From TrEMBL:
One of the Pfam families matching this protein, by short name: Pollen_Ole_e_1
Sequence similarity: Belongs to the Ole e I family.
Domain of life: Eukaryota
Source organism of this protein record: Vigna unguiculata (Cowpea)
Span of the signal peptide: 1-21
Protein name: Pollen allergen Ole e 1 family
Keyword Signal part of the UniProt annotation: yes
Record has Signal as a keyword: yes
Keywords annotated in UniProt: Disulfide bond, Signal
Amino acid sequence: MATRVLLLMALALFIFPVATATLHVKGSVYCDTCRAGFETNVTFYIEGARVGIQCKERKSLKVAFYTEGVTDSTGTYHIEVENDHGDHICECMLVKSPIKWCSTPDSGRDRSSIVLTHYKNGIVNHLHYANAMGYLRDQPLPQCHNLLKYYLADSDF
Ligand SMILES: *[C@@H]1O[C@H](CO)[C@@H](O)[C@H](O)[C@H]1NC(C)=O
C-alpha cells in the first residue's frame, strides 16, 4: 500500500509540471529576394512579421485554437502555447509582412506543420521548431540570375 502511494506521488510529481508547462514554438520568416523557393545567401530575415499558430480538431477540422506572434530583429518568432495540443492538427502560418515589396507568401513555404505536445516518442519536449516560412520579393534582385545558376549547379539534380 505504502509503495503504491509513493508510486502515485512520484507519478503525480512527474506528470503535473509537464502537463502545466508552457510549450515554446520558434521559427523564422524570411524574404526570398530571388523568388527561388528556398533560402539563398541574399535571403534576409524579416523583423515585425506576424505569424499565426492554428490548431484544428482532427475529425471535424474545426479551429480549436489560434494565437499570433511577431518576429524580432533576427526574423525569429517565439510563441508560447499554454496547453498541450497533441489531439489537434497544428500549423504555423504567415499572417502579415511589414514590407510592402516582400509580402507575397511563397505558396510552398507559407506554413509549417508542428506537433504541439510535450510528449513525443516518450521524450518530454517543451521547445518546438517550425520550418522557416517565406515571402517572395516582388522583383528578384539583379544578381539572382547568376546566383541561382550557382545554387542549381551545386545541388546535383
Ligand atoms: C552568394 O554566393 C555567390 C556564389 O557563391 C557569391 O558569388 C556571392 O558573392 C554571394 N553573395 C553574398 C551576398 O554573400
